[in-house]
Amino acid sequence: MRVPYGWMAEYCDPGLDPDVLAEKLAMTGTEVERVVVSGPPSADNFVIGLVTAVEEHPDADRLRVCTVDDGEGERTIVCGAPNVAAGQTVVVALPGAVMPGGMKIKKAKLRGVPSEGMICSESELGLGDGKDGIMVLEDGLAAPGTPAADVVPISEHVLELEVTPNRTDCFGIYGVAREAHAITGAALAPAPWEGESVEAGGEIDSLVSVEVENHDLCPRFTARAFTDLKIAPSPLWLRARLIASGQRPINNVVDITNYVMWLTGQPMHAFDLDLVPSGALSIRSAKPGEKVATLDGVEREVSTDTVLVCDQNGPTSIAGVMGGAVSEVSETTTSVLMEAATWNGPNILRTSRDLNLRSEASSRFEKQLHPDLAERAQIVATALMVELCGATVASGMVDVAAPLSESGPIRLRNGRVERILGLAIDTDSQTEALGMLGFGVEADGDDLLVTVPADRFYDVTREIDLVEEVGRVNDLDKRLPATLPSGSGRVGGLSRQQVLQRRAEDSMREAGFDEIVGWSFTDPGETERLRLATPDSRADAVRLSNPLSEDQSVMRTTLLGSLLGAAGRNRSRGAGRIALFESGRVYLPAGGFGHGPLGGDFPGDQRPPVNEPQHLAVLASGTIDPATWDNDPAAADFFQIKGVLERLALGLGTEVEVVAGEQPFLHPGRSGTVVANGEEIGWIGQIHPSVATAWDLEETVAFEIRLAELLKASPLGEETYGDFTSFPPVDRELALVIANSVEAASVLAAAKEAGGDLLVSVTVFDVYRGDQVGPEEKSLALRMRFRADDRTLSDEEVDPIWQKIIGAAEALGGKVRG
Amino acid sequence: MLERLETIEAEGTAAVNGAGSAAELENLRVKFLGRKAELTGILRGIADLEPAERGPVGGAANKVRKGLEALVESRIESLAGAELEASLASDRIDVTLPGSPVRAVGHLHPITRTRRLIEDVMIGLGYQVMEGPEVEHDFYNFTALNHPADHPARMLQDTFYIESGAGAPEEAGPRDVLLRTHTSPMQVRAMETTPPPLFMIVPGKTYRRDSDATHSPMFHQVEGLAVAEGITLADLKGTLLAMLREIFGPDREIRMRPHFFPFTEPSVEFDVSCFKCRGSGKVEGEDRCNLCKGIGWIELGGAGMVDPNVFGFVREAGYDPDLVTGFAFGFGIERIAMLRHGVGDLRLFFDNDVRLLEQFS
Ligand SMILES: [Zn+2]
Q: What CATH number labels A2-39+157-184?
């Protein structure tokens, strides 16, 4: 909303620098995007001049040499405008004047003739389109030498307001003036419609008739008629205000509709009454497939939700959005039907969105205007139609209105303002603030009974809304204390799982990995590149119905795509070290609904639509450790990434197991399933070469786990002390030759099973393949520790267990090596 | 005889002190203390001496022998030490070469670091950290937050919706399930489950259909909600001020400008005083401070008192607007990270270039 300062000042002049007023508005709820100047940046050096003589330029056909009286004497100005003539009163830019755009006027020679200034056109002053050359003022408007700004509005400051959608009142100049009044205390002039009204019925009934099909969609439709008028350009002051407001002057009638809209906030529309057969209008919803030719020269097909203003031949305009070409006001118009209507806000919003057509009118209607505004607009427009167009007014007004649901006054309880704001504002100040904002206030005991004006009808409906009004105009920013909630020793903190999640992330950082944050959405082709296919649930993604692009149209079901994407991009940019991890959610449409990212339910009565588990995934392509002058580390392989996984588990005080298991995107011989607490929680392995190639990567290893399940296995913070000093352990080692196909994990599991409670740990400390064992065999060296909590173990006690373990190993096909 | 012993002692001492290497000392040990040495001979021949001489000569000879032995030992030790030092000194490395790292150093993403910073500050103020779903029902994202049915934010061009049958239930309408547009849906979720007093923050991903240098379709927010008896707008101001001072420095000030949001009333936008120009808008050598564009204030987020209509959805859970009041606030994590670390383009955060990531350890 562009607010020319001078226009607003006609109703309330705070006497402040426009930037200072802008700051005050911003601090009371109306953002000012910027303050601009319409026309020259300063009015200095623009004066009224009288052209006393015009001669041809000796050396240029198109130029004239003018003598101009500037009040102090005569000066020569070379002018190119064809319309310049002796006797004209004009605006002269003297040397030193700065034009819009920054050009500075200087003394100059034009084709040999000295020129001391410039005679200005409308467009050069920001006052019009200036097609006709220099601007010629009314004879005798002002004496030569008068500052131009005294008679023409040049160099007008304009506040560009960013009005919040609830404040429909500030979409009109008078509303902004009232706001300025309330926040500065400067006097407010009565509204231009104040004290007047227009009765329904009268002469108008013989000229115009209106039918409204649905009052919900059109709560009020008013029309007045004007005859014997003359279409002409608007006077300078009106054109200047429209231009400063960002609107283009057209002719007096159309300019009046726009001027009234800018002043009152109520859009209007003018029909050429002679082009409306019988003066009959009907307001109805569009029929299927119906088309309307709008003022912008486009024929549009509209939906059946659209409300149309029709004459006997069909649609003339799209209600509240744009007028039609059928009955457009033109040069030859002599009678006008002036419409001011109230439309259904949400309906207008939908229509303008559907048609992708927004206008100053629709942007006001869509916020829901009060029906009283229609009459105000008619009152202001009528005066201007008479004054500017010489129109004869048909008495009365067509007024088709639905009964308005009355709402009584709102009670503002004593003490409520302080209770909400934490700042005491006494009742007198509350009353004063509300009064200045246009509310009616009456005391009722200690409370206030507040009546809401039409401008604020849909915005202020409850006590709390009044609290806000009182607060915001009471210098809230300066006066409001900064306190902390009092109360009963609250304890803040992270949940145990949040603590563990941080620890997991930190341990990956400490292991040398860089954390990424990947997009939650991805392209549907990623599934295929990862070779995932139904019935794998990861091929079944949550889909957006209105993505920004196909590339971001499905929600990820694995973090692997994000990591491969980041790895590939970094590789192509020449990154030396690619060791990445992500801790983030995946989105699964099926299964396990309602679980939060770290297990347990999200808060709330309704379960979330999809499952969003938190995953942790780690990927390395190439070396994890940087090469140094004395160390050339090998590229990360399966065992290195497994070491990272084990470190992750150990950092959480737990262990994971990896058993053979395939994934479509992993090397079939170098892939495993991660198990914690007997539950499968993820995968680990080398990325399948053909998958890695799709991201332009070479050998790449990775793992991905469901974090909640790993955290569940962590005893962190719940560990209990185990006695390790009283009774010494017995350590024994076993070398076992066994077929390659038997996994170490199954040997360990068998040993644990056979070892019972007294076997406290068993680990593989060496693996040998070579000449001393068969070609399909390996030798596993196992280290075992036995201990009891209550006694020192003797060999006699360990021996039978040892034999059981050997038996179990032999059952797997192993031979004890001598 | 005693004189002879004195001579041997003097000669031996001089020779041992003059020896330059361990090998030479070994030779001297043989010469003065070995089996064929004169001293050894004297000691062996004591029994043949006159009884009166045996005592004095024996004592003196033993003393000389012990003295020489001790001297040789100590000389050997000191020579060995000197030789070690010499050999170490010649085994010199270039200590200025880079160290061999135990492991590479990894990095947390700047968003994670910033999120944790905010979490830790708010934990210190007594808040719990809660998380909510990103794929959300319209009810929590809009309806329960007092957005009218036709609110512009609900339009297809602003909010991502989920296809029914592909995340949204088969029977869901086309606008029933969406990607949350803010972290605020957790306000009502949390109040449904937890009776007042409630003090929580919700960090997390949020989504809007917007993409340019200052808008990303995915971004991160932190929501704050405090509901109890007697909570005021002044408490909101104090809480935000305390938080912003922890994040941006102890000299910062806060500014609250009245604004409009459907789910708070009164609503404000809040700014922090610029930490580059200390709120003056001016920086030496520049036209104006480029961080705050000369305003002296940096816009951070929205806040306000929880609208009674929002409490209306959780009245049964113990939230009667005549008994409790509350404030809520929300702001972007990326914005804080950009300000703190001078990152100019929002999109850099999701590009995950290691050259960016490795600047933040
Ligand atoms: Zn600054």
A: 3.30.56.10
From the options 3.90.1150.10, 3.40.50.300, 3.30.56.10, 3.30.565.10, give the CATH code of A410-479. 3.30.56.10
Torsion of CA A279, A285, A291, A293, to 10 degrees: 40
Q: Which CATH class is domain A204-401?
A: alpha beta
Q: In this predicted structure, what is the pLDDT of residue B346?
A: 87
CA of B358 to the centre of ligand 1 (A): 28
Show residues of chain B in contact with A421, CB under 8 Å: 232-234, 266
Distance from residue B329's CA to the centre of ligand 1 (Å):
23
Q: Tell me: do B259 and B303 sit in the same domain.
A: yes
The identity of residue A764, as a single letter, is: V
- What is chain B's percent helix, strand, coil content, to nearest 5? 45, 20, 35
State the pTM of this model.
Answer: 0.84
What's residue A631's pLDDT?
A: 78
How many Cα neighbours within 13 Å face the side chain of A8? 32
Average confidence (pLDDT) over A174-184? 96
Burial state string for B9-26 with b = 16 or more CB within 10 A and e = fewer than 16: beebeebbeebeeeeebe
Statement to judge: residues B85 and B142 lie in one domain: no
Asked if B100 lies within 8 A of A631 by C-beta distance, the reply is: yes
Beta carbons of B103 and A625 less than 8 Å apart: yes
- From the CA of A14, how far away is ligand 1's center (Å)? 29
Q: Does A475 touch chain B (CB under 8 A)?
A: no
Among A422, A513, A514, the residue with its CB nearest the CB of B235 is A422
Helix axes A252-264, A372-389, angle to 10 degrees: 140
- Domain check: are B123 and B46 in the same one? no
Which residue bears the tokens 């590009």? B351
Provide mean pLDDT across the span A18-32: 93
How many angstroms separate the alpha carbon of residue A541 from the centre of ligand 1? 45
Specify whether B174 is located in the same domain as B37: no
Q: How many domains does chain B have?
A: 2
Query: Which of A494, A545, A580 to probe the B interface (max B CBs under 10 A)?
Result: A545
- CATH number of the structural domain A496-712: 3.30.930.10
User: Which homologous superfamily does the CATH classification assign to the domain defined by A46-154?
Assistant: Nucleic acid-binding proteins (2.40.50.140)
pLDDT band at B99 (very low <50, low <70, confident <90, very high): low
Nearest to B126 among A465, A491, A596 (CB): A491
* Together in a domain, B268 and B308: yes
Q: Which of B106, B112, B237 sits opposite A482 (nearest CB)?
A: B237
- Residue A339: both structure tokens together: 């419409």
Q: Which domain holds residue B70?
A: 2-90
> Same fold for the domain at A2-39+157-184 and the one at A410-479?
yes
Higher pLDDT pick, A108 / A380: A380
Full DSSP string of A322-373: B-BSTT---TT---EEEEEEE--HHHHHHHHHHHT---HHHHHHTT---THH
Are B258 and A27 within 8 A, CB to CB? yes
Amino acid type, A344:
N
Average pLDDT over residues B77-90: 81
Quick check: A594 pLDDT over 60? no
Q: Which CATH class is domain A730-816?
A: alpha beta
Taking contacts as CB-CB distances below 8 angstroms, the residues of chain A near B348 are none
CB–CB contacts below 8 A, A to B: 298
A569 lies within 8 A of chain B by CB: yes
Q: Report d(CA B162, CA A557) in Å as an integer.
A: 15
Residue ranges of domains in chain A: 2-39+157-184, 46-154, 204-401, 410-479, 496-712, 730-816
Q: What is the ipTM of this complex?
A: 0.86
Q: Note whether B192 contacts A570, CB cutoff 8 Å.
A: no
Task: Pick the residue of A363, A490, A598 with the most B CBs within 10 A to test the interface with B by mutation.
Answer: A490
